[in-house]
Specification:
By secondary structure, the protein is mainly beta. The strands form five sheets. A 16-stranded antiparallel barrel has the order 11-12-13-14-15-16-17-18-19-20-21-24-25-27-28-29. Strand 16 and strand 17 form a beta hairpin. The termini are far apart.
């Protein structure tokens, strides 16, 4: 029997129980061939059972083997009080010697920059030998040689020096070629090339092929019927995809009741209509329209058009527009012109121009409105960059993964008031940023925990303008601030209930899944926000709690939620509850 194994058996059965469940000091004596002590090390460890002690000794032995002492073993031990003394026999140190290559192998090793793996005079272990071959093999297969054979040949061990020859048999260079789609999942092959990273003429890569299924199933409008296949012929690799159409477009309707701010007033009917279309012309494009009624005579309209991989490149267009009307007070129009630059898998960076302008709707004098409410007309242009990265197992109903979206823009803003034929202006530079982060963590097969953060920040600097606004004074008008609150941001409050110049919202939600597209949830969300206007500097931390459910029906996904909110330090009141009812019908 191996002496090391015998030592472990003796230790397991005869080691005094007083050693367990306590922290011990351990002295390891390194013995050379003549048994003279050449090294002494001290470290502390906690051992709670005989099995853990076995693992502890095995770890010591493996640590020395990794350093090249492949004959290392635990020779003896003894305990004194809370101190354990081990005698570790290291033996000889084995090292890598010279590795020889033929002309083809040498050329490929240099070309793929893996020659650093073959450095001499490093600690030798059989695990390191397999690791080197595995890394070289992966690099070769990811650079056009799917049938390459690699390995050490004619290996020798001279005393303590390992020498060998290393050989690579390429067996043909292959490049990506055609994509053939089978099934009813209609999509442009040019779109698939860019999205999957399977570009014609590119060197074959195992890594790219391995990610095909995962990327296809993350598309909201396609899914795989069966695993993809690769056909190799005449130095070309053709990809066969078996795709099925997935319902991704939807019509979403939500209705809600909110209490009136007037004394004894009737509840106000709020609502939302949302239409989303994707892949209509088989290019993975997106078209969206959204309408919201957030209060009495207050409405929002949003539209979006995204067209990816323009002219079969990695660039795409992204146009959005938002129109906000606040009762009979003001109207704000906000078009955003963007150009996306895609990575494989749909993640992207975007350059954008964000233009925003607001005008008054009332017949009252602009100066009187400004002095009373702080609302005024303005123009603002921002130039910025946005990034989007997501890795979700299911885009429509995620259970695992994350989403990260961030943007920042810099530009100029101008406030102005036209009064009696005179125009007063205030100009300043402005920076604006935003963040959206989601993380889905499955606790079990039925429970999923969601963490979400949405944040925004705007700041003015370098002001100049008319003294009417105050020399060197900068501020934001309420009609240009962020609007937060409601079902998709801060539940327990009306849609767009809060105006903020800086905010951060956190939502924690526990979901119980009782169907593929059905769940029961309980949530808590809270925001910290600041409102800096010409009239007030306001800080508050509103929060909301509630429950809800989503369940799949033949007509679509039906959703209902009940939430209670608190703000300005007031207690939660059932009178201020919010009920949201919605239906998402996919087609």
């Amino acid at each position: 029997m191996n002496p090391f194994v015998l030592s472990l058996l003796l230790i397991f059965f005869f080691l005094p129980k007083c050693l367990f469940s306590q922290q011990i000091s351990c002295y390891c004596y390194n013995q050379s061939d003549d048994l003279s002590v050449i090294e002494k090390k001290c470290f502390k460890a906690r051992i709670d059972s005989g099995i853990e002690f076995d693992l502890f000794l095995s770890k010591i032995q493996k640590r020395q083997i990794k350093k090249g002492y492949i004959t290392a073993s635990i020779d003896s031990f003894y305990q004194k009080s809370d101190t354990l003394f081990l005698t570790v026999f290291y033996g000889k140190s084995f090292r890598f010697g010279p590795i020889y290559f033929d002309s083809i192998t040498k050329k490929m090793i240099t070309h793929f920059k893996v020659d650093r793996l073959f450095k001499s005079n490093r600690a030798f272990t059989t695990a390191k030998l397999h690791e080197i071959n595995k890394k070289v093999h992966e690099v070769i297969r990811n650079n056009g040689y799917p049938f390459a054979i690699t390995g050490f040949v004619n290996s020798t061990m001279d005393s303590t020096i390992f020498s060998s020859s290393y050989r690579i048999e390429p067996n043909g260079l292959f490049v990506f070629d055609s994509i053939i789609v089978k099934g009813d999942g209609e999509i442009s092959t040019n779109y698939l090339r860019q999205f999957l990273g399977y570009r014609k003429g590119q060197l074959y890569s195992d890594r790219t092929v391995a990610m095909v299924e995962d990327r296809i199933n993350k598309l909201p409008f396609l899914q795989s019927n069966k695993p993809s296949q690769i056909l190799f012929q005449d130095s070309h690799a053709d990809l066969y995809l078996f795709l099925k159409r997935k319902k991704s477009g939807y019509i979403n309707g939500i209705a809600g009741l909110a209490p009136s701010s007037a004394q004894g007033g009737k509840p106000i009917l709020t609502g939302e209509a949302d239409v989303y279309l994707q892949n209509i012309v088989r290019r993975g494009e997106e078209l969206a329209f959204k309408w919201q009624k957030t209060g009495n005579k207050s409405q929002n309209v949003n539209a979006k058009l995204v067209y990816p991989y323009l002219f079969n490149t990695m660039a795409g267009i992204d146009f959005r527009i938002e129109i906000m009307r606040q009762d009979t007070s003001w109207l704000t129009v906000n078009p955003i012109y963007g150009m996306r630059f895609y990575f494989s898998g749909g993640n992207y960076l975007k350059l954008f121009i964000d233009r925003k302008s607001s005008s008054l709707l009332t017949v009252r004098k602009p100066m009187a409105i400004f002095l009373e409410t702080g609302v005024t007309e303005f123009n603002r242009d921002l130039y910025g960059i946005e990034c989007y990265f997501a890795n979700l197992d299911d885009v429509l109903f995620p259970r695992l993964g994350y989403l990260f979206e961030s943007k920042i823009g810099l530009g100029q803003k101008q406030l102005f008031i036209n009064e009696l034929g005179i125009q007063y202006r205030n100009k300043a530079s402005q920076v604006e940023s935003g963040l959206h982060f989601q993380y889905y963590h499955p606790i079990s097969s039925r429970f999923v925990l969601l963490f979400e953060n949405i944040s925004g920040y705007m700041h003015l600097f370098k002001p100049h303008g008319d003294s009417l606004f105050g020399e060197g004074k900068v501020f934001f008008a309420p009609n240009e601030m962020f609007r937060i609150g409601g079902l998709k941001s801060l539940r327990g409050f009306d849609e767009n209930a809060f105006s903020a110049t800086a905010f951060s919202m956190l939502r924690v939600e526990l979901r119980f899944l009782y169907g593929k597209r059905s769940s029961f949830n309980i949530f808590y969300n809270q925001a910290a926000y600041q409102q800096m206007s010409s009239l007030v500097l306001l800080n508050d931390n509103p929060y909301g709690i509630g429950i809800g459910t989503d369940f799949e029906t033949p007509a679509g996904i039906f959703a209902i939620s009940y939430a209670l909110g608190s703000q300005s330090g007031n207690p939660i009141s059932m009178r201020n509850s919010r009920v949201h009812i919605g239906l998402i019908s996919r087609f």
